[in-house]
């Protein structure tokens, strides 16, 4: 491809990526803007409901017609606003919840109207009771008047207390001298209707308050979901922008490197060789790649150089030496990079570990001095667990340094079953979260293992973590230990996950090979595991069937072939 076409293609790809990123970002911003409008409407609905509740309290307290009219006006506005964002509400809380919201508002409005009607009828009943009472007081005399005044006293108590006991007292007071009087019976009937009106008012008041609380709850949930959606969208937009920027930066670096390799580097190399030729050094030739203008220049240069046959032998020798030097430089750069990386990791991790270890030690000293602390033993056990974890982390950083320099093996004698139980405890929370059942079939009386406990822990942590990732929620993992022979212990880790395809089994112990989804695995875990087991004198096998599960069988030597020294 010609150089100009390479330049055009590279910058076009760069611009296209920027346009795609801008398009998706604009789309997300439009979504957020639409949602913000919905949030404003939902907030308006919430404010309207608060106003309705405020006038509801005034109406229940003062029984005035103005508060009732305000409630009706706000309810009309509320229904209009809800209808205006029906699509957004249905999308967020579903058709059933939307219907429930509408029905709740309608029910609230119905109860308010009934209460208003009830209050109007009460005014009429109260007037009728008062008028009938006055009329009877004017027409009764002597003992009959005294008895009726007592009855009126009970009537006043009913109007004041409005409770069932007072009403029953009124009903039970029926002296013989008042019986048979049709006007008094009419009076009693009016008082009974008035009390029923009080009961209806109480029931309606309770229903109004309950329905209003339900409206507030639905609105709060709607507002919460709208804001959660905006929060999720903002986070997604941030990730999209970050991903886009990183992609553009990486693509820019790749393009620049590509152009530099295809244009600038050949020209610079040609310049260097030309200077050597000017000094009488014909030890190098141009490597011709492609069919562009640079390649044509390289071919012409090589043809000129090939005419000098007398420098052929010296040229081949120089190329050989140059290749050796280049290989050494690559290896040196690799080792330097790994050493820097390992030192950085050790510095960044070991310093916080030292602080954690120091603070845990201080806490342990304080607890040991506190004789009356209720949970002393429990917290001391927790602190000991912290010490063990810090020690394990230090061991891990020690292994990381092994990528750039030699490190010593830590050989110790330990119970393999106890180590497996400890490892199972590391994943207790994760397995509980995924409802994974762990079955430990650990054979008793196994011989003690003399090996590097930290490295074996890393082996089984890797395998069990892979098993957890492979099984679905509610799956199962079984860990079995048994004697293979007097010198070897078998540890089988079996899961009922998705399994490994047969064609992939031969590659699973190779570096950077993984069957996990992109971004969820590095492909180094099993490679490191395989290397550790082999170095310790053991072996590892795998059996798997797609959609049925996978079994890793690790053969652990009772006495490791390594002694306390160095691993290369």
Topology, please?
Layout lengths: L2 H60 L2 H20 L1 H54 L2 H20 L2 H9 L9 H97 L14 H14 L5 H58 L6 H25 L6 E2 L2 E4 L1 H11 L1 H6 L3 E6 L6 E4 H18 L5 E10 L2 E8 L6 H4 L19 H11 L3 E7 L3 E9 L8 E2 L1
Parallel strand pairs: 3-5
Antiparallel strand pairs: 1-9, 2-4, 5-6, 6-8, 7-8
Helix pairs in contact: 1-2, 1-6, 2-3, 3-4, 3-6, 4-5, 8-9, 10-12, 12-14
Description:
The strands form 3 sheets. Strands 3-5-6-8-7 form a 5-stranded mixed sheet, covered by helices on one side. A two-stranded antiparallel sheet has the order 1-9. It has a two-stranded antiparallel ribbon with strand order 2-4. It is built from 14 helices and 9 strands. 72% of the residues lie in helices and 9% in strands. The two termini are 47 Å apart. The protein is elongated. The longest helix has 97 residues, at 182-278. Among the domains are: 309-405, Signal transduction histidine kinase, dimerisation/phosphotransfer (DHp) domain (Helix Hairpins); 410-567, Histidine kinase-like ATPase, C-terminal domain (Heat Shock Protein 90, 2-Layer Sandwich), CATH 3.30.565. With 568 residues, it is an alpha+beta fold.
What percent of residues adopt helix (DSSP H or I)?
over 70%
SS elements, strand count: 9
What CATH architecture of the domain at 410-567 do you see? Answer: 2-Layer Sandwich
Summarize model confidence as the mean pLDDT: 80
Percent range for β-strand residues: 5-15%
The order of strands across the largest sheet is 3-5-6-8-7
Order of helices and strands: HHHHHHHHHEEHHEEHEEHHEEE
Give unreliable regions as ranges.
Answer: 327-332, 402-407, 563-568
What's the helix count? 14
Looking at this structure, what is the CATH superfamily of the domain at 410-567?
Answer: Histidine kinase-like ATPase, C-terminal domain
Tell me, what is the CATH class of the domain at 410-567? Answer: Alpha Beta
Termini distance?
47 Å
CATH topology of the domain at 410-567: Heat Shock Protein 90
| Gyration radius from CA atoms, angstroms | 44 Å
Biggest beta sheet attributes: 5 strands, mixed
Shape: elongated
């Amino acid at each position: 491809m010609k150089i100009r076409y390479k330049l055009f293609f590279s910058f076009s790809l760069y611009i296209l990526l920027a346009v795609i990123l801008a398009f998706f970002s604009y789309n997300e911003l439009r979504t957020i803007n639409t949602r913000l409008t919905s949030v404003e409407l939902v907030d308006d609905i919430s404010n309207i409901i608060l106003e309705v509740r405020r006038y509801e309290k005034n109406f229940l307290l003062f029984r005035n017609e103005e508060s009732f009219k305000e409630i009706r006006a706000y309810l009309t506005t509320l229904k209009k606003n809800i209808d205006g964002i029906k699509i957004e509400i249905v999308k967020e809380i579903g058709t059933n919840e939307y219907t429930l919201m509408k029905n709740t508002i309608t029910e609230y409005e119905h109860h308010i109207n009934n209460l208003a009607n009830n209050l109007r009828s009460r005014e009429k009943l109260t007037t009728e009771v008062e008028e009938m009472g006055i009329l009877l007081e004017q027409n009764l005399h002597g003992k009959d008047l005294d008895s009726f005044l007592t009855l009126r006293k009970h009537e006043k108590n009913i109007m004041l207390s409005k409770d069932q006991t007072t009403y029953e007292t009124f009903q039970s007071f029926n002296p013989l001298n008042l019986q048979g009087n049709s006007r008094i019976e009419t009076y009693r009937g009016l008082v009974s209707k008035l009390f029923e009106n009080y009961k209806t008012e109480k029931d309606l008041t309770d229903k109004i308050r309950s329905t209003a609380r339900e409206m507030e709850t639905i609105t709060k949930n709607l507002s919460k979901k709208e804001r959660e959606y905006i929060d999720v969208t903002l986070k997604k937009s941030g990730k999209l922008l970050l991903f886009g920027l990183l992609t553009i930066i990486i693509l820019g670096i790749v393009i620049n490197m590509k152009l530099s390799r295809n244009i600038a580097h050949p020209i610079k190399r040609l310049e260097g060789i030309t200077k050597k030729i000017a000094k009488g050094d014909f030890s190098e030739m141009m490597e011709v790649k492609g069919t562009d203008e640079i390649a044509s220049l390289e071919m012409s240069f090589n043809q000129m150089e090939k005419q000098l046959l007398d420098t052929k032998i010296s040229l081949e020798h120089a190329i050989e030496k140059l290749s050796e030097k280049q290989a050494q430089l690559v290896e040196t750069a690799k080792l330097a990079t790994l050493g820097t990386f390992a030192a950085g990791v050790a510095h960044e991790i070991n310093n916080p570990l030292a602080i954690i270890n120091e603070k845990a030690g201080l806490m342990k000293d304080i607890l040991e001095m506190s004789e009356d602390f209720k949970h002393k033993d429990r917290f001391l056990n927790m602190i000991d667990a912290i010490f063990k974890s810090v020690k394990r982390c230090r061991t891990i950083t020690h292994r990381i340094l092994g990528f750039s320099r030699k490190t010593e093996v830590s050989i110790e004698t330990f119970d393999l079953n106890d180590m497996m139980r400890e490892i199972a405890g590391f994943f207790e929370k994760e397995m509980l979260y995924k409802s994974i059942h762990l079955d430990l079939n650990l054979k008793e009386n196994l011989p003690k293992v003399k090996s590097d406990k930290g490295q074996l822990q890393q082996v089984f942590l890797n395998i069990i973590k892979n098993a957890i990732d492979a099984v679905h929620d509610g799956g199962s993992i079984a860990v079995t230990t048994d004697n293979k022979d007097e010198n070897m212990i078998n540890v089988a880790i079996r899961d009922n996950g998705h399994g490994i395809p047969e064609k992939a089994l031969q590659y699973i112990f190779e570096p950077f090979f993984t069957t996990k989804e992109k971004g969820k695995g590095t492909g180094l875990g099993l490679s490191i595991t395989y290397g550790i087991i082999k170095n310790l004198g053991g072996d590892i096998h795998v059996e798997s069937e797609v959609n049925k599960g996978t079994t890793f069988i690790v053969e652990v030597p009772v006495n490791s072939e390594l002694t306390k020294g160095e691993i290369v």
